[in-house]
Specification:
heterodimer, A: alpha/beta, B: alpha+beta, Glutaredoxin, 2 domains, 7 helices, 60% helix, 10% strand, disordered C terminus
Chain lengths: 420, 231
């Protein structure tokens, strides 16, 4: 058996294992996916909206907040402009005139986490919600998220991000990714292993900022949401995912913007991983540590696998080129229909059977995620290209993130080397 | 505060067990289909024996008009199908698997038998067919055998009157030894034998075309009705 084949078997095995585990936890908790009881209390919530150059989306964001189905006197909206170069601030001020609950602040460009912290200083609410400037909330999102806080143990609730109707193939692929990730996060939250509070929309108890401090983003990867979740997990504080607290967001347009965004996210993940490596202790953090280890290995394996596929593709290309040369570029041979259709009698190897099984498991995951997210939009192209292209995209994002992480931490690594 | 954070070993163990079961069932299904394929190949080989016997008998019966209703193409097609199945089985069982080697030996004998019949029909019925023997070896000992196999396939597609019989040089089979001594072959792979003439080493497109030119005139190459070739 070749190295590549062993690797594929390993990945299939771990993928199956993960999917069965997820499904098992889902079956155990399927009655608890949504909080069905009505809100008993409506405490004061401060919504912080940090914005940088969001003139296109800021109006929609703010209008979605002022139209939230939540008692008007129990809501304050803190808008923080992080030194935008466009008309974001002016637009926010215009909307402020229509609703006095909106308070607008401005700072020089210092990064999202600093904008959030400025907002934090201005808040009065018992609960603090953060909303991205390029996202808008479902009218019931806040109400649904707040239901979870009836349980005093829950310290943070993460919203469920959905992508607005995709404009191109890359967005279509991301939509599938978001959909499945939301379902998995819900499962992680059942196991007290949610390691992310959505940057697009999350709600926190005020007390956690008083005890743990404000938002942090040491290397400016703009992953303060991830850092906060890691910090909460480190302190054994509970985070849950509200499957029906929808926040709609538009992904970056075009391949390069997406690459930039993912590089930032994943490099931020690695950065926080470095800061909170203690979370990898299975003895101390149980399921969370298990999932983090799983992520590390699956990322490494998938990068190696994609490398292997590219190498095989290259070999195939060389072989084809060699055959073209051997036949003096007689293309008619390559395009002629085979006379013997026996080749259609598939060679059913274990790998073939297991790949079909994995596809089945994937579609099961997809349709279950879709049902639980009340999603009825068509996914025709997105799902097809997700299967074929996502592994390559994902590997590229991670490689780029590793590079970015290493270059930002170069000094520390060099210092370590000298010490040794 | 989160309750005591433990890894639920029992759940993980059960999930692991289920995954193993599903994983093994993939192998089970695949082996089930492989078994079916082996049976299919065996049946095809049996059919081929019957076809050879039938054609031989037909040949003997029709001494007056041996070529009337003669059709050897069924042999060629069947040989090709068996050959394809054999390479799949080889890919699954491994080139050194004893079952696969046994299949390969059987297949080689069938190839030689159908060649003998073909030779007879070419002589008596003046068929425009060119039999080619091709000896190959493992990738280690014959780096260019893969290219040679591809080129022969290409020529077979281009000139349907070619009949290519491929043999593993290292297959320990008496009848192959006889064939090797008939042509006094030395181990310089790949080897191509056309009309008794032995060509050692890789033959490129130009060289093969040159070899074939001796037996198939250009204007008759495309035509299946020509009767130029005679051994």
């Amino acid at each position: 058996m070749f190295f590549g084949e062993i690797l594929i078997y390993l990945i299939i095995f771990s993928g199956l294992y993960f999917s069965i585990f997820i499904f098992w936890v889902f079956l155990e908790n399927q009655g608890r996916i949504y909080q069905k009881e009505k809100n008993k209390k409506f405490p004061l919530v401060s919504l912080i909206v940090p914005c940088y150059n969001e003139e296109k989306g800021v109006e929609k964001t703010l209008y979605s907040l002022i139209s939230l189905d939540y008692p008007k006197d129990k809501l304050e909206i803190i808008f923080v402009d992080d030194g935008s170069l466009d008309s974001t601030l002016q637009k926010a001020k215009l909307i402020q005139k229509k609703d006095k609950r909106i308070k607008v602040f401005h700072q020089e460009n210092k990064g999202k986490f600093m904008a959030l912290n400025l907002g934090l200083e201005k808040t009065k609410g018992e609960f603090i919600a953060t909303v991205d400037g390029d996202s808008y909330l479902h009218s019931s999102a806040l109400k649904r998220a707040m239901k979870f806080f009836e349980n005093p143990e829950i310290k943070a609730v993460s919203g469920t991000a959905k992508l607005i109707k995709p404009r191109n193939l890359i967005e279509g692929i991301q939509r599938v990714e978001y959909l499945i990730a939301n379902f998995w996060r819900k499962i992680f939250s059942f196991l007290n292993s949610l390691y992310l509070t959505s940057g697009a929309f999350s709600v926190y108890r005020r007390e956690i900022f008083e005890t743990l401090g404000p938002f942090r983003d040491p290397k400016l990867f703009q992953t303060e949401d991830l850092e906060m979740a890691f910090r909460l997990q480190k302190e054994n504080l509970k985070i849950v995912q509200a499957m029906d607290a929808f926040v709609y967001t538009r992904p970056p347009f075009g391949f390069m913007s997406l690459l930039k965004q993912r590089t930032r996210w994943y490099a931020g993940f690695l950065q926080n991983f470095k800061e909170y490596s203690c979370l990898l202790s299975i003895k101390k953090y149980g399921n969370l540590a298990f999932f983090l280890w799983y992520i590390i290995f699956s990322v490494l394996f998938s990068i190696i696998l994609v490398g292997y596929f590219i190498q095989r593709g290259f070999e195939f290309f060389l072989q084809l080129l060699n055959q073209f040369i051997l036949t003096d570029f007689d293309f008619s041979y390559f395009f002629s229909l085979p006379k013997n259709w026996e080749f259609l009698n598939l060679n059913i190897t274990p790998l073939f059977v297991l790949t079909i099984l994995c596809l089945f498991v994937f579609f099961f995951n997809f349709f279950l995620s879709r049902k639980l997210s009340f999603d009825s939009q068509p996914y025709k192209k997105g799902i097809f290209f997700f299967i074929f292209l996502y592994p390559y995209f994902n590997a590229l994002w991670w490689i780029s993130a590793f590079w970015s992480f290493l270059s930002k931490n170069k000094k520390e690594f060099l210092w370590l080397k000298k010490e040794n | 505060m989160v309750e005591k954070r433990e890894l639920n070993w029992k759940k993980h163990f059960l999930v692991f067990f289920i995954t193993i079961l599903i994983f093994l069932s993939g192998f089970f299904f695949s082996n089930f289909f492989l078994g079916k394929k082996i049976v299919q190949a065996t049946n095809l080989q049996q059919d081929l024996i019957l076809d050879i016997l039938s054609l031989e008998t037909q040949f003997s019966l029709l001494t007056e008009m041996p070529c009337k209703g003669w059709d050897e193409s069924i042999l060629t097609e069947q040989l090709q199908v068996i050959g394809q199945k054999l390479s799949e089985i080889g890919g699954r069982l491994g080139e050194n698997n004893p079952d696969f080697i046994r299949f390969k030996k059987y297949y080689s004998i069938l190839e030689i038998k159908s060649w003998l019949l073909l030779k007879k029909s070419i002589q008596n019925c003046k068929l425009n067919l060119v039999p080619i023997f091709y000896f190959y070896g493992s990738e280690k000992e014959c780096g260019q055998c893969q290219d040679q196999s591809f080129l022969l396939g290409y020529f077979h597609e281009k000139y349907p009157s070619l009949r290519i019989y491929s043999f593993d040089y290292n297959l320990g089979l008496g009848v192959l030894q006889t064939l090797k001594s008939m042509y006094s072959l030395k181990k310089d792979l790949p080897i191509i034998i056309v009309n008794g003439k032995v060509y050692y080493g890789f033959q490129n497109k130009e060289a093969i075309e040159k070899i074939l030119k001796e037996y198939l005139l250009e204007n008759q190459i495309e035509s299946a009705t020509s009767t130029l070739f005679q051994e």
